[in-house]
C-alpha cells in the first residue's frame, strides 16, 4: 500500500469530536498504517496531542506524496524538530516516508512570523508542545482551506480543543464563534491599532457569514 493510500485509510479510521483514532493514540495508529513494528508505552495524558500530530503528519505525507511540499515546508518546523518528533514517537521503519534527507529548513515569512508570535504570546509557559503547535498552526494557516482541514483534523471542534488546550487566553477571546483564521487576523489588527473590516460592527456587515460559523452548520465534515 502506498503512503497516500495509507493516509486515506487513516482518515477513515477516525472518530468524531476529538475521540482517539480507533480507540488508540494517534501515533500508534499512524505507525501501524505505515507498517511499523513494536510500539513503546504512551503517556495517556498526551493522547490528544499525539492524535493531532498524527493528523498533521498524515497531511504532510499527502503533500510529500504529491510533490507539493517537503516535511519542513508543510509544518513550519525545522528538520531537527521533525526528526526529534519522529525519533521519539514513530518506530524507525516509518520515518523514511517523510524523506528528511537533504531537505532544508523553510524560513517563515513576515505573515507567518506575526501569526507565530500571536500564538506564542498565548502559549502555555515552558511547554514545548505548545511552541511546536504554534509553529505548525502558523504555517498551516497560510493555506487556503479551513485551518482544521489543513491540519488534517476531523472537524472544527478538534481545532477548538487544540487551541483551548495550548493557547488558553487566545481561544477564550473567541466568544462569538468566529472562524479561527479570521479571528487570528483580527487579533493581529487589534494589536497594531487598526482594522481591515469596512463595517462599523459585525452585526450589520455583509460579509458576516464568511467570518462566523453558522449555528446550524454541523461541525463534522462530509465525506467527498
Describe the structure.
- The protein is an all-alpha fold and 224 residues long.
- The protein has 13 helices and no strands.
- Helix 2 runs parallel beside helix 3.
Structural class: mainly alpha
Termini distance? 21 Å
Fraction of residues in H or I helices: 40-55%
Q: What number is the mean pLDDT?
A: 75
Question: What is the β-strand count?
Answer: 0
**Order of SSEs, N→C?**
HHHHHHHHHHHHH
Shape: globular
How many helical elements?
A: 13
Low-confidence stretches: 1-26, 36-46, 216-224
Content of β-strand? under 5%
What summary fits the major beta sheet?
none
Radius of gyration: 18 Å
Tell me briefly what this model is.
Helix content is 53%, strand content 0%. With 224 residues, the protein is mainly alpha-helical. It starts with a helix and ends in a 13-residue tail after the last helix.
List the helices and strands and how they pair.
Elements (H helix, E strand, L loop, with lengths): L2 H10 L13 H8 L13 H19 L5 H5 L3 H11 L2 H4 L14 H12 L6 H13 L6 H4 L5 H11 L1 H5 L7 H13 L15 H4 L13
Helix pairs in contact: 1-3, 2-3, 7-8
Spell out the key features of this protein.
globular, disordered N terminus, mainly alpha, 224 residues
Amino acid at each position: 500500500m502506498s503512503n497516500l493510500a495509507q493516509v486515506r485509510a487513516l482518515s477513515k479510521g477516525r472518530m468524531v469530536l476529538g475521540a482517539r483514532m480507533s480507540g488508540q493514540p494517534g501515533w500508534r495508529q499512524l505507525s501501524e498504517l505505515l507498517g511499523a513494528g513494536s510500539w513503546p508505552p504512551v503517556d495517556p495524558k498526551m493522547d490528544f496531542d499525539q492524535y493531532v500530530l498524527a493528523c498533521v503528519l498524515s497531511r504532510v505525507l499527502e503533500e510529500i506524496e504529491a510533490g507539493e511540499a517537503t516535511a519542513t515546508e508543510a509544518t513550519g518546523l525545522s528538520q531537527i524538530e521533525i526528526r526529534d518528533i519522529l525519533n521519539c514517537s514513530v518506530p524507525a521503519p516509518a520515518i523514511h516516508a517523510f524523506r528528511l534527507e537533504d531537505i532544508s529548513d523553510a524560513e517563515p515569512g513576515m505573515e507567518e512570523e506575526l501569526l507565530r508570535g500571536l500564538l506564542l504570546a498565548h502559549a502555555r509557559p515552558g511547554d514545548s508542545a505548545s511552541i511546536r503547535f504554534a509553529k505548525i498552526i502558523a504555517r498551516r494557516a497560510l493555506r487556503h482551506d479551513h485551518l482544521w482541514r489543513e491540519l488534517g483534523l476531523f472537524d472544527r471542534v478538534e481545532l477548538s480543543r487544540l487551541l483551548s488546550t495550548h493557547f488558553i487566553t487566545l481561544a477564550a477571546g473567541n466568544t462569538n464563534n468566529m472562524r479561527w483564521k479570521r479571528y487570528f487576523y483580527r487579533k493581529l489588527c487589534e494589536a497594531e491599532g487598526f482594522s481591515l473590516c469596512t463595517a462599523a460592527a459585525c452585526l450589520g456587515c455583509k460579509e458576516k457569514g464568511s467570518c462566523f460559523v453558522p449555528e446550524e452548520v454541523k461541525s463534522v465534515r462530509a465525506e467527498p
